[in-house]
Structure formats: C-alpha cells, structure tokens
Design a protein that fits this description.
alpha/beta, 2 domains, about 15% strand, 8-stranded mixed β-sheet, UDP-N-acetylmuramoyl-L-alanine:D-glutamate ligase, globular, 15 helices, about 425 residues
Length: about 425
C-alpha cells in the first residue's frame, strides 16, 4: 500500500460518519494485538483548549528529554500531523505500512459480519500501533469528541484532564452543558488523578461528582496562583505558583489570556506525572515547555500573512480555529484586548453547516469592521451566500469570495495598511490558508 492509497482508504471511512461507542475500536484493537495496553498515557478531554494543553505538556516532556507519542485531531494541512513521536510526525512509509495492517483487520471484521470502524477509530488504532512500534514512554492523547465513548478512551491513563466545557456537538453529546460534561467526564478512572480547568458551575458539579464516584484525586487550576509578570502582555508573561508550592515564570509561547489556564492544566499534569516517580520532569523543563510550545492555527499571528502588499505594506493575518461560540468568545476577547489599535479588522469566515454560524457571527460583530465569507471544498461546508446573509443579519457588512485563497486576497485589500485579517470559523479554513 502506498501513502496515497492509505490516505484514500482512510478517507473512504469518512462516509460512516460519527458513531459513538467503544465496541468497534475494541474489536479492531484486539485484532491488532491490543497495542494500547500497557502503554502509559495521559488523556485530555474538553470542548476548547484540549490541543493547547497537549502542546504545552508535550513541550515540557520534550524539554525533559522524554519523547512522548502525541495524538491530536484534526490536522491542519497533512494527516501526518495527527500522530507524532517527539517533534517527528509519522512518516509516509510508516503511515502506509500501518494503514495496511489496520485495513486487513477491518476487512476481517467485515467478513465476520461486524460493523466497520469509523475514520476516527481507524486513525486512533494507527496511533496506538505507531506508538507501540516506536516504544514511546508515554502517549499524550487528545480526545476527539466527548470522552465516554471516544475511541481514545480505551487507554488506561496515568492522569487525565478536562478543559473548559461548552455547547458543541450537541447532536451527539447533549443539549446542555451538564449533559456534555457527563460525556467528557467519562475519561475519569478509579484512583487516577484528574486536572480540572476553569469550568461553568454546572459542568464542574458533574465532573466533581464523577471524580468522587471513582475516588479520583482532583487538581483544580483555580488552586494555582497566577501573577502577571509582564503587564498586559501578548503572549501572557506570568508566574505560576502550584498547590505544591513550586513557582514557574514564563512568557507563554501561545497567545491569548485563556492560555494561562491551559498552561496551568498542563503544568499540573506534569507535576502529577513526576510525582509518580516514573518521569524525570524537572522545574527547568516545565518552564522551557511553557515558553516553547507550538500549536499552529490557534491565535497564530503571521506578520505580513496576507501574502502580498496592500498600499505598500503587508497586512497581518491572525489564524484561529474558533469553530463554536465558546471559541468565538475567546477570539473576540483577544481582539478586544490585544488588537484594538488596528486600523481595520476584517473577518475571513467559513464554517461547517452543522455549526451555529449566526451565533458565532453575532459574537464577533463588535470586534470586526466587516466580513469576507467563503465556502470550503467539503460536503459539510456551509454555502457562502448563506453566511453572507447571516453576517448581514448580525450587522456585519459582508462580501462573498469563491474560495479561501480568493477570500484572503479580498480581505487583505479591505483591511488595508495597518489592518488585520482574522481567519476563523473552522480549522479546515486555517488549513486551507496555510497548506
């Protein structure tokens, strides 16, 4: 199997959609020799911030000389970004070979009359296989959706974390924050420490009840003392003091005030891991990880990122994967507090049709002068004319562009000298602009 054939086969599983449940992934992994068993892991669930926490923790581990296996989703440009060891993405040859193994196991399941694993289940199995082959000392796993029935939840973690919970994927996870929190809290294990980020009250109550039922120690980021070290800076420059009394000063590598809590979540995970006496993660490594973590497409500011001069000067581009109302509120806060001096702020917006685009645009209308909307080349993408109408209904002047590249050109022209183009609404849009 070639790399192209591997990706084509995986893409073919997309037609199965999202099917919550652990039966298929369990059956698939059994046929692959259960590569997830005896693999030390950390599981991170939540609505927003999961990937940032994984990025911070992985950077801390790497700074300590520990090369973790890291599994995240979705990818921005290339599938290989989802599965890496240390800073090294899975190679094309490794992906092709391991996909061949997964395909043979899936075909055997089909011959036995068992339901076929989904795209995400197959890619999760790929990650576990790769980590076993590479002998990673620890796997850091980002939950895809939910937690209780997510394919990553077959792992047995040494520690887990739950980032802020908000309404998203309501057709699968529930229509209230409490119902969604119940699904996210499904990663909690008996006696396994769980780090809990700042939460809405109804979500925190559900998570704490789940932890109490399992006898799982709870570490709250609210117990960390945070002091600004560099004023109202971007990225944040802060001093953390953990409940254990350790102090860490770092100018965070990731932008946005919300990253302070994400960094605290990762910091508490790192302290938990080293308290197990299995991983030598010293204070210096934690500090270096806070200052070096990379997570592309999340409040990523690219000076001159418009790909061309406008009025003699390049227009800056802010890439953010905000794809739900909670993410849009974070983005709006960042623009309000850290990008208010811009001459103009122009949204470049595209979204999937199952997202509440009207609400998202309403949240962003007060921090943007206008919007340029476009359609992504995906079956789930919302049509640009529909987005234009929603933007205008929200009070935003809007222009339609046929594709992301054309939309970027239009948005840069409209932003003008000293302006900012803000690309948001979907990680697929960010990927289309950076690929």
């Amino acid at each position: 199997m070639t790399n192209a054939q591997a990706l084509a086969w995986l893409d073919g599983l997309e037609s199965l959609g999202i099917q919550p449940g652990l039966e298929r992934i369990t059956a698939l992994l059994e046929r692959l020799g259960n590569p997830h068993r005896d693999l030390p892991s950390v599981i991170v669930a939540g609505t927003n911030g999961k990937g940032s926490v994984v990025a911070f923790l992985a950077a801390m581990l790497e700074a300590a000389g520990i090369e973790p296996g890291v599994y995240t989703s979705p990818h921005l440009v290339r599938f290989r970004e989802r599965i890496r060891v240390g800073v090294e993405n899975i190679t094309d040859d490794e992906l092709a070979a391991l996909t061949g193994e997964v395909r043979r196991a899936v075909e055997a399941m089909r011959r036995e009359g068992l339901p076929s694993p989904t795209y995400f289940e197959a890619t999760t199995a790929l990650a576990f296989l790769h980590f076993r082959r590479r002998g990673v000392p620890l796997a850091v796993l980002e939950v895809g959706m939910g937690g209780r029935y997510d394919a990553t939840n077959v792992a047995t973690p040494l520690a887990c974390a739950i980032t802020p919970i908000a309404l998203d994927h309501t057709q699968f996870l529930g229509t209230t924050v409490a119902e969604i929190a119940f699904q996210k809290a499904g990663i909690v294990r008996r006696g396994v420490p769980v780090v809990v980020a700042a939460q809405p009250t109804e979500a925190e109550q559900v998570i704490l009840a789940a932890a109490a039922a399992e006898g799982a120690p709870v570490l709250r980021t609210s117990a960390c003392r945070v002091e600004p070290a560099g004023g109202f800076s971007d990225p944040p420059d802060v001093v953390f003091t953990t409940p254990a009394g350790h102090r860490f000063h770092a100018r965070l590598a990731l932008r946005g005030d919300h990253q302070v809590d994400n960094a605290a979540t990762a910091l508490l995970l790192a302290e938990t891991l080293r308290d197990l006496d299995r991983f030598a993660i010293d204070d210096a490594a934690i500090g270096r990880g806070l200052a070096s973590a990379q997570w592309p497409g999340r409040l990523e500011l690219r000076p001159g990122g418009s790909r061309g001069p406008v009025g003699g000067a390049a227009v800056d581009l802010l890439l953010d994967g905000a794809h739900n109302p909670a993410g849009c509120r974070i983005l709006a806060g960042y623009l309000r507090h850290h990008q208010a001096a811009r001459a103009r702020r122009v949204l470049l917006f595209a979204v999937m049709r199952d997202k509440p685009a009207a609400e998202m645009l309403s949240i962003l209308r007060d921090v943007a002068d206008e919007a340029v909307v476009t359609t992504l080349p995906l079956p789930r993408a919302a049509p640009a004319p529909d987005l234009e109408r929603l933007a205008r209904d929200a009070g935003l002047p809007a222009t339609v562009a046929p594709d992301p590249s054309a939309a970027l050109t239009v948005a840069a022209r409209h932003a003008g000298k000293g302006g900012l183009v803000v690309a948001c609404g979907s990680l697929y849009l960010v990927g289309a602009l950076t690929g």
